[in-house]
Structure formats: C-alpha cells, structure tokens
Design goal:
Largest sheet: 8 strands, mixed
Shape: elongated
Strand order of the largest sheet: 7-6-8-9-10-13-14-15
Order of helices and strands: HEHEHEHEEHEHEHEHEHEHHHEEEEEHH
C-alpha cells in the first residue's frame, strides 16, 4: 500500500473515531439531562385523583417551568410516563416492569395516592434511591420516615396534620373529650385513615375518645341507630362521611333533640371536594328547612382556600382539559390536582440545589433531603414542607353565621407552620360552655343528680356498714383459700395468655407496618 494511501486511511479512521466519541458523549449528556418521571395514578375516573384529572395539572407545571426558562437547569427536560395504579398492586408491578423489563430507571415517582398502593412502592423507592412525591399516602403510618418510607415526600397535608388542627381547636374551646364517627365503606378507606390521624394526635394528649364506624353503603344502615349511639358517647362529635350521609345524620340528631346547644358537631370535608362531607345543607327538597336548623350546630373543617390570579388561569385550563375527556363536575382543582402540580415545582427546586453541590439526578437521597424544610410558592399559595417531608396543613372552619338565611362562612383559620388558630371577630357559637356539658362536668352530672339533704350518718347506715364489714371479711377469707388452691393453675394460664397476646400484638404491628391493615 502506498504511504500516501495509508496516511489517508489513518486520517479517516481517526476522524470517525472522534465523531463516534463525540456522539457517545452527546448521548450521555442528553441522557443525564432527561428526567424520567413515572406517574402512578388510577385510570378509573371515580377517583378524585384519576389520571384524567391530574394529568393536565402535571403537564401545566412542566410547561410553566419550560416557558419560564428558570425553573430547570439549561438543557434539562421531563419525560412523563403514565401508568394505571388501579389503586392496588398494579402500581408496584408497573415500577418493576419499567426497571426490570424496559431497563429504564425512573428519576422521580409521582404517586400513588391510595395507601395500599403507595406502601410497597415507597419501600422500593427507598431501596432503589428514587425520590417519591405524592399528594396522597396520607395515613399516619407513612409519617415514620426513618426507614422504609425514607424517600417519600407528601405534598398534601397528611391526616395527622388535620389532627393537629383539631387539637388546636379543642384547646381553644378547652375540650378534652370527643366522639369520632366515620364511614368505613369505600375501598381506599379515606375516612378511616382520616380519623386514625385525629386519633393518633388526640391519644398523645391523653384525650378521652369514643369511636363509632358504620358502612354508609349498606342497605341495612339505620341512621337513627347511629345517632342514638352518639348519645352514649361524648358531646363533641367529629364526623367523616359523604355529604348526603352527614345531612341525614344531622337531620336525625335534630329530630332526637341533640341540636339544643348540648352537643357540638364537626364535619371533616376531605380534599376540598364535595364528594366528602360537603357542608351545604340545601338540597331543594322538603327537608331543607329542617336541615338549615340542624346545620346551625354543625361546623365544617376544610383546607384553607387561597385565590391567586395564576390559580384562576390554572383552574380554567385544567377544567377545559378535563371536560374534553367527558368529565363534568364541580371540583376540577381539588387538593390532589393542586398537589401534583406543586410536586413538579418542588422537584425542580430540589434538583437545582443538588446540582449546585456537584451531585446529579441519580442522587435520590440528596434530592429528597432538599425537598424538606422548604417553603416555596405553589399554584394556590405558599407550600411549606417540614423536616419530616410532610406538608404543613392550613385549614379553615366554616360555620353558619346567619341562622335565618342559612349562610355559611369561614369563622376561623389554622396555620400549620405557625401552629396558630385564629378565630374571626364577632363569632357567635351555637353553644356555650354553660350548656354544652363536657369533660369533668359530665361526671358530676351522672354522679350527683340530687342535693345532699343530710351529711350525717343515720342508724340504718351504721348498721349497714357493720354488716357489710363482716360479709367483706368472710369473702376475703374464702378468696384467700380459693387463691391458694388454684394459684398454680391461674399463673400458668396467665403466662400462656400473655404469650398469646404478645404474639398477636406483634403480628398486628407487623401487619399495620407492612399493609396498613386495620382489622
């Protein structure tokens, strides 16, 4: 081969090698700047957080970041993949399939919302070092972020945050006893987990609680029986059920004479949605007048609503997108829709911080740390995440301010980050502490119904005491011999029962930790 031809061939090979290397480097850089997001939400539109409802909000956030030019580092872009979680194991299977079969590891998980779907996904996210942001997984069990839920950040207020709000409300009224009444009928058990959050917070304060549940989907449900059961409990009643069921309970309570100032009723409106606990009494039926009277003794706890000009634009765009899918309803921008929009913003902020310190999108734990102890501007107002990765909750209390007209307005606000409860001026409660017999006053009510006519002891009383003392001595002696004879048997049985109870308790705790079972 002539020397000049050999030299030309070497130049061509060197050029091709250089081009190939440059191409590989470019592909690697492009891959590094591509943020793969796996969205795990149910396809079923009966859920308030279905893909059809939430997807427009997520894409609105991604588009806003891209158009602003400052939301993401230069060259970075989101790649969104949507999978049906079916509110169950399908969420876990979708994540495993993406990694094991498609060989595409997600950089961010959005969802799931349902507790039973979120638990295994959160464990795997921690194992694979993938950040998981959700506007769900609100049960109290997810608050333990030290181990298997370490990579979960909740961008909507957990149920325990609502419990903290109710605790502040109770302290304001100087109450320490409550009845918790909830419907436990739907598969995701939202009201059960909501009341669990309240129960956990109240239990830490040693509040006395009576707990009642019912299945509002049952054909055999008798609301009158439910209300009669309330009369055996405490006089402050916290309820969680559908709006129609709450109305039926209040009508029954009114007919049974419980709306006279001696009971206080609170209704939890979950997710800023009329599907749960809607505080409106008006239905346009023959019971409206009676319901209006009953609702004057009902106050509704809901998320604090803020209105920004940007939120109006967001709400209209989400509404338009959802309606194109054939969904027509009142609540287009509920808590989940807002939450997942804000989750995209939070991730972008955390990623920017991580990149400044020389890390990459693959450093999931570092990104998770940057999502915590942070306050930023969300679509509806400020969003504050605490050190545990849980959003602080801001709540409002709605009450009837004009019983004649039936007008319901916000009468108080709770600001979670400050732990401050503010009552609006000139609020008049339908009860007063003199008529609403609570706490220790109820004990004296049942134990001291008649005045003492004589503080001395009569002759018959002395005789009774002597006879009672002799009988008591005889019973003690009989018990002593009985105990001595059967002591070994009793001790063996007790040890066996303690062992069985210990095993059952451990099994129960493992079940709650692993599957959020509430048998």
């Amino acid at each position: 081969m002539p020397p000049w031809l050999l030299g030309s061939l070497c130049c061509v090979l060197a050029a091709r090698t250089a081009l190939g290397g440059g191409s590989a480097a470019a592909e690697e850089e492009e891959e590094e700047k591509l943020i793969r997001v796996l969205v795990l939400l149910p396809q079923d539109d009966t859920y308030l957080f279905s893909l059809g409802r939430v997807r427009p909000a997520i894409e609105y956030a991604v588009r806003s970041l891209r158009e602003s030019g400052s939301g993401l580092p230069p060259g970075y872009a989101f790649q969104l993949t949507y999978e049906d979680s079916a509110c169950g194991n399908r969420a876990l299977f979708s994540l495993v399939d993406m990694v094991a079969l498609q060989h595409r590891r997600p950089d961010l998980l959005l969802g799931p919302v349902c507790e039973y779907a979120a638990a295994p996904v959160a464990r795997l996210a921690a194992h694979w070092d993938v950040p998981m942001l959700s506007a769900g997984a609100l049960a109290a069990g997810f608050g333990a972020k030290g181990g298997e839920y370490s990579h979960l950040t909740r961008v909507a207020p957990a149920y325990a945050k609502m419990g903290e709000m109710l605790l502040a409300l109770f302290r304001h009224h100087q109450w320490s006893r409550a009845t918790l009444l909830y419907s436990d009928s739907n598969p995701e058990r939202s009201c059960y987990f909501a009341m669990e959050g309240v129960h956990v917070v109240f239990q830490e304060e040693a509040f006395h609680m009576a707990v009642h549940s019912f299945d509002e989907s049952s054909r055999h449900l008798d609301i009158d029986d439910v209300v009669r059961a309330l009369q055996t409990g405490e006089r402050v009643v916290i309820m969680c059920a559908s709006g129609d069921t709450i109305r039926n309970i209040m009508l029954a309570a009114h007919r049974q004479g419980m709306t006279n100032g001696e009971y206080a009723f609170f209704n939890i409106e979950l997710f800023n949605s009329s599907s749960y606990g809607n505080g409106s009494w008006r239905r346009g039926d023959k019971h409206d007048l009676e319901a209006k009277k009953a609702y004057s003794y009902l106050q509704t706890v809901t998320l604090l609503r803020t209105v920004k000009p940007e939120f109006e634009k967001f709400s209209l765009e989400v509404k338009s997108s959802v309606q194109k899918q054939g969904l027509h309803e009142d609540d287009y921008a509920n808590m989940f829709v807002e939450g997942f929009h804000d989750a995209i913003l939070l991730y972008a902020l955390a990623l920017q911080e991580v990149l400044k310190f020389g890390f990459s999108k693959k450093d999931g734990e570092k990104i998770v740390q940057q999502t915590r102890n942070r306050t930023y501007e969300g679509i509806a107002g400020q969003v504050s995440i605490d050190a545990n990765g849980d959003r602080y909750g801001d709540f409002s209390v709605i009450g009837m301010t004009d019983p004649e007209a039936g007008t319901q307005e916000v009468i108080g606000d709770y600001y979670g980050k400050q732990g401050r409860f503010e009552i609006r001026p000139n609020v008049k409660y339908p009860w007063n502490h003199g008529r609403l017999r609570l706490d220790e006053s109820r004990v004296s009510e049942h134990t001291n119904n008649t005045p003492c006519k004589s503080c001395g002891l009569g002759e018959s009383a002395v005789t009774g005491i002597v006879v009672g003392a002799l009988l008591g001595a005889g019973l003690l002696m009989a018990f002593y011999f009985f105990r001595k004879k059967y002591r070994i048997t009793i001790e063996r049985r007790t040890r066996q029962e303690d062992c069985n109870m210990g095993k059952h308790r451990q099994l129960r705790e493992d079940s709650i930790r692993s599957h959020f079972s509430a048998a």
